[in-house]
Amino acid sequence: MSDMIRLVEPLIPALRRYARALLRDPADADDLVQDCLVRAVSRWHQRRSDGDTRTWLTAILHNLAVSQMRRRARRGAHMSVEDAPEASLAVAPSQDGALRHRDLMAALDALPDEQRSVLLLVTVEGLSYAEAAQVLAIPTGTVMSRLSRARDRMIRLMDGEGVTVPAKRPLLRRVK
Amino acid sequence: MTARPINEDDLQALVDDRLDPARGAEFEAYLACNPDARARVERLRILGRDLRSAFAPVLAEPVPARLNLAHILEARRRPRRPAWQATAAAMLLTLGGLGGWALHGALAPVPAGVDALAQEAGASFAVYAPDRSRPVELAAGDRDEIARWFSARLARPVEVPDLSAAGYRLMGGRLVATPHGPAGLLMYDDSRGTRLVMLMRSMAEPGDAPMREHRSGSATGYAWAKDGLGYSLVGPADLAGLHPLANEIRRTTATNT
């Protein structure tokens, strides 16, 4: 198990980042990472020894996030990003960057779930297209088409249609 | 050589800096005469930078303690149930098995009489003897109080045997629930910390029952009944002198009762 600590521990910050980007609420995101680590510990012996640890862990995290999003969607947790208090967004932006940051988050929230995942995995997490395909269990071609659509949609939302971004999906937040 | 047509996958790879250099050179030529495509690539690159910097602060945060992998591993290594529960369960199974063996051939393999008592005593020993923080409910200082309490709950006079001659000091007692009603538990220990448990309760049958030895992997017990009151003395399996001690208790209580 010591090799597990050696291989997994350095990846935890990036797992937190992906979870935060998906769920936005810091506590919810860390809950998710904790679930992911508990699962990883119990399934460590089941992973392919030649497989990449980061891809394996990210896939576990992603699948947990998807089931959590589905549960929330069923519960009807719903809040538009304009209602979200600033503190629940990923970072506290500086005054100058505040508007831009807000637009960026709003646009990201407006993406369909499957496009957002691809965009974050490739752009923010720096996974290769093949790794992203493995995490999401989809063909690489699908990764490419979703990536293209996600980027164009982000640009349209941010530049083309101004700041009034309709929240097309229920924002994933803890129900207080 | 004719350049391959520019496709969308190449453009995405260009944005991500993942295009192989040869293809990249072809692309530069294409972008030079397609300002719209060039602007799009530039815009998408800015989008990527913005996204990365938006979530970059998360990487700099200290990782919360609950995400400490060593803690998670440790929590997993710890048995789900406290060890005494597992021991008690093993004890019950073993004693249940022994009780069943003692009664083999009987229609109902449920232990009865002193076999049932021995099983209860074994379970109590497994639960309370390893308890370091609160092995007994009522401390030995209240010896008379223990005797009064047990006598009241067992609805008959009950004595607290003195084992100091054998080197065992009374630690105290507690009441234990059994399928056959309340039982009084006494715990003793010696100077090395070896603990003994004595369980006493009323038997369904009046009169005496001969002493029986009950063994399991971790404990040995001697159970008997005198005048309708059942006794079971349980100690560690490797403990010498437990049988003579049980005989001594039986003799003493017999003369006292």
Task: Report what the structure shows.
The complex is a heterodimer of chains A (176) and B (257). Chain A is mainly alpha-helical and 176 residues long. Chain A has a single domain (2-160), classed as PhyR, sigma-like (SL) domain (Butyryl-CoA Dehydrogenase, subunit A, domain 3, Up-down Bundle). Chain A is built from 8 helices and no strands. In chain A, helix 3 packs across helix 4, helix 5 (95-110) packs across helix 8 and helix 7 crosses helix 8 (140-160). In chain B, helix 1 crosses helix 3. Chain B has 257 residues and is α+β, with helices and mostly antiparallel strands. Residues 103-108 of chain B have low confidence and may be disordered. Chain B has 2 domains: 8-60, no CATH class; 83-256, no CATH class. Chain B has a 7-stranded antiparallel beta sheet with strand order 1-2-3-4-7-6-5, sandwiched between helices. Chain B has helices at 8-15, 21-32, 35-60, 69-77, 83-102, 113-128, 143-154, 242-256, and strands at 138-139, 169-178, 181-189, 195-202, 209-215, 219-226, 229-236. At the A-B interface, helix 1, helix 2, helix 3, helix 5 and helix 6 of A face helix 1, helix 3 and helix 4 of B.
Task: Describe the structure concisely.
With 176 residues, chain A is mostly helical. Chain A has eight helices and no strands.
